[in-house]
Amino acid sequence: MNDEHVRAVDPAVAEALSGEVDRQEGTLAMIASENHASEAVLEAQGSVLTNKYAEGYPGSRYYAGCEYADEVETLAIERARDLWGAEHVNVQPHSGTQANMAVYLAMLEPGDRILSLELNHGGHLSHGHPANFAGQLFEVEQYQVDAETGYIDYEALAEKADAFDPDIVVSGYSAYPRAVDWERIQAVADDVGAYHLADIAHITGLVAAGVHPSPVGIADFVTGSTHKTIRAGRGGIVMTSDEHAKAIDNAVFPGAQGGPLMHNIAGKAVGFKEALQPEFTEYAEQVVSNARTLADTFANHGLDVVSGGTDTHLVLVDLRESHPDLSGGTAEEALERTGIVLNANTVPGETRSPFDPSGIRAGTAALTTRGFENPEIREVGEHIVRVLDSPEDEGVIGEVGDRVTELCAAHPLYR
Ligand code: DSN
């Protein structure tokens, strides 16, 4: 990729950037929250809009010279509305967590109550973990997945809601492989007079393409990030009805943020345009098909796939039964040595430390972007199993690593 100006000014950063291009090019990105943005998105994100202050919203800014910022942000908003069908969209959140912060800030008072899924069961830090602002400012109760099935325990969720009387129920998850029944969670929220926030950060692209049910029009608020399955570059987004539009806009700016990252919003606009093309639906369908193939491959080799499979882009494996002496962290490290990059993950009923948990999480969004289809995903799944079985066998690490290099070369990204 062209880096002549960075290289002239700062060779150290140029070397690191070039190393990162090589790393992405030469390894298999299977961290479920990652993807590879197109060069068009990268160009927009690396544009002169990084120079522009545009506090406010299109047509109503606190600074002069915002005509192009207005144009770009309006395009991002219109395309997001086309993609997800929301009445109102705010494309300014810097990340998914900032989007969630805006919803809490708009609708809750400090000390109010959040009911959300436990982190070990697939939730997210910004849903109320004690280490996060959401856990520090609000009272938090958590629901779980069913210990046997790995699916959300909707009945227990309803009972918790009755007992806890939350102000907001949070759905949408970071490590939950199954389709979410948004209506059922909405009914729980309605029963206790709570708002419903559906955080679709991981599945924005799947929802936009119609391969996962949409919470838009069901939940009061839908938040997401824009760099995962939707592939529109780093950032966040909030969607809501006209009723809550003003509260959300005020909560994003000036409530939670200052000047919007206009270069990122340009990336979102471009990525959303790409996602509106018919090929994106094919992409999203292939992402899910690939994830199902990966889950089947793992299950056929005796791994404990949480919930028995997947409806999304991700697969969660609990290593405790099949590999009792192998932690997620050791598995992650051994796989990284072969060029397969995924993450250690906590699992429902976690018994180890979150720093070295019992599971691994793997996603197919990035590999699908570079053109992997089911046979290659099956092969990658078999390589993962081989490494899990022999994480310290240098022969296995070397053989798998060589094959990963061949697979990457067959699917170039940016070169
Ligand atoms: N860190 C992201 C993930 O990996 O799921 C979520 O923010």
Describe the structure.
The chain is an alpha/beta fold. It has two domains: 43-275, Type I PLP-dependent aspartate aminotransferase-like (Major domain) (Aspartate Aminotransferase, domain 2), CATH 3.40.640; 286-410, Aspartate Aminotransferase, domain 1. It is 46% helix and 13% strand. It has 16 helices and 15 strands. Strands 4-10-9-8-7-5-6 form a seven-stranded mixed sheet, sandwiched between helices. Strands 11-12-15-14 form a four-stranded antiparallel sheet. A two-stranded parallel sheet has the order 1-13. Helix 6 links the parallel strand 5 and strand 6 (139-143). The radius of gyration is 21 Å and the shape is globular. The site of D-serine (DSN) has 4 residues, from loops.
- Broad CATH class of the largest domain: Alpha Beta
Query: What count of structural domains?
Result: 2
Counting copies of identical and different chains, the oligomeric state is single chain
Secondary structure tally, helices: 16
- Cα separation of the termini: 7 Å
Strand order of the largest sheet: 4-10-9-8-7-5-6
In round numbers, the mean pLDDT is 97
CATH architecture of the largest domain: 3-Layer(aba) Sandwich
Uncertain parts: none
**What share of the residues lie within helices?**
40-55%
% residues in beta strands: 5-15%
Give the beta-strand count: 15
CATH superfamily of the largest domain: Type I PLP-dependent aspartate aminotransferase-like (Major domain)
The general outline is globular
CATH fold category name of the largest domain: Aspartate Aminotransferase, domain 2
Task: Give every kind of bound small molecule, once each.
Answer: D-serine
Report the C-alpha radius of gyration, rounded.
21 Å
Decide which structural class fits the backbone. Answer: alpha/beta
The biggest sheet, with number of strands, parallel, antiparallel or mixed sense and barrel status, is: 7 strands, mixed
